[in-house]
Amino acid sequence: MDTPPASRATERDRLIAADLFSGECTSRHLLSHVTSKWGVLVLVALHEGDRRWSELVRTIEGISEKMLAQTLRTLEGDGLVLRDARPVVPPYVVYRLTDAGREAADLLLPLLHWVGERTAEAEREPEAAEKSGAAEEAGSASPSGGTEEG
User: Fold this and answer.
1) Burial group, residue 16, by CB count within 10 angstroms (0-12, 13-18, 19+)
2) Where is the composition biased (Low complexity) (predicted)?
3) Rounded to an integer, what distance in angstroms lies between the CA atom of residue 94 and that of residue 131?
4) In angstroms, what CA-CA distances link 74 with 1, 18, 70, 77, 82?
5) Bridge partners for 85 per DSSP
6) Helices marked H in 19-142 — which ranges?
7) Where are the domains of the chain?
8) Phi and psi at residue 97, in whole multiples of 5°?
9) Closest residue by Cα to residue 99 from 71, 80, 76
10) What is the value of pTM for the model shown?
11) Which long-range contacts (CB under 8 A, 24 or more apart) does 66-71 make?
12) Cβ atoms of residues 38 and 73 within 8 Å
């Protein structure tokens, strides 16, 4: 469903008023942190509940320990993630979303749902194209059983 042009203009006007399109806009830093590949995945993983370091590493396949540490520090600095380090041996650290982090994750979840749907469609399209291509090839056969050549 397309957004009516008037609604798009209103939304764009709001963004311009917030100065998001300006290269100098300080909110771009937060935008880049929240929408980075690892930022999105960390926020969504924590949306499911509090997690320890090792749980995040297992949940977010492919993230290096260095990148996880950097992403968690960044999101903590942005006020989206809380790090709860308990004074015990061995160290026990739990990460959780702040209210702002939960709000950001709530907004990201529909986007990830959309991405999943589009990815599934794209994966089905080559199969449909192959079937369509086979049907076209069969339809281009001449009545004598050979194929037409141009």
Assistant:
1) exposed
2) 135-150
3) 50
4) 35, 22, 6, 5, 11
5) 93
6) 27-35, 37-47, 53-59, 65-77, 99-139
7) 22-130
8) -80, 145
9) 80
10) 0.70
11) 67/38, 68/38, 68/42, 71/36, 71/38, 71/39, 71/42
12) no
Residue type, 30: L
- Please report, to the nearest 10 degrees, the dihedral formed by the alpha carbons of residues 29, 31, 32, 38 taken in order: 130
HSE-CB at 39 with a 13 A cutoff on CA atoms is 19
Token duo for residue 56: 């995040």
Q: Burial, 122: exposed, middle or buried (Cβ in 10 Å; 0-12, 13-18, 19+)?
A: exposed
What pLDDT digit, counting tens, does each position of 75-112 carry?
999 999 999 998 898 889 999 999 999 999 999 999 99
